[in-house]
Design brief:
It is built from two helices and seven strands, in the order H-E-E-E-E-E-E-E-H. Strands 4-3-2-1-7-6-5 form a seven-stranded antiparallel beta sheet. The radius of gyration is 30 Å and the shape is elongated. The chain is an alpha+beta fold and about 190 residues long.
């Protein structure tokens, strides 16, 4: 076999490979109306909450980080607060009334970052705020036992976006619970 001689090798330029100033393609451009709509964080949060609690109509307040405690009392150890294993973003939600003449209905929801069980507690009655904890009482449907929950909300020093977050959300939860209790006594 004879080696190729580089001098005899000719390059052929094809006319159809000429550089172009415009990009030509057979593929049509995607229309802009097919793009998903831009949503705000508030809209996205509401959609996520409605998957967990479909009756949610609006978000009243958000705390970026909260820990749920449960009050236990045993003869051996006595009364104590224990972490429930639920911690994450806390939402105070307004919900649809249960009937046409029903009044306002609210819940506290903590979407758990550590597990699959979330905290959802309907608001009604007295809510206490003591030593940095929001104290909620709820009755279990199955056993009729009262559960006592403590919510601890993370907050930073003055000047940060979370400064005063505990007291603000405690006040909002108390106000929402009072409005829900008025509606229960009026319509219930």
């Amino acid at each position: 076999m004879m080696p190729k001689n580089p001098k005899n090798h000719q390059r052929h330029q094809s006319a159809h490979l000429q550089p172009s100033d415009q990009y030509d393609s057979d593929i049509p451009l995607a229309p802009t109306q097919d793009l998903p709509p831009q949503r705000t964080n508030a809209e996205l949060n509401l959609l996520v909450l409605q998957r967990h609690l479909p009756s949610t109509t609006s978000i009243v307040s958000i705390a970026p980080y909260a820990v749920v405690y449960i009050f236990t009392s045993t003869p051996q150890s006595g009364p104590a607060w224990e972490k429930s294993g639920i911690e994450g973003t806390l939402f105070i939600c307004q919900q649809k009334p249960e009937s046409m003449n029903g009044g306002e209905k609210y819940s506290v929801v903590v979407l758990n970052r550590k597990g699959l069980n979330d905290f959802i507690c309907p608001l009604s009655g007295d809510i206490d705020y003591e030593a940095g904890y929001i104290i909620l009482r709820s009755t279990s449907d199955e056993m009729g036992e009262e559960n006592i929950w403590g919510l601890w909300i993370f907050e930073e020093d003055e000047g940060s976006s979370t400064a005063g977050m505990r007291e603000v959300n405690a006040k909002i939860i108390q106000d929402c619970a009072a409005r829900a209790a008025i509606n229960v006594s009026t319509y219930g």
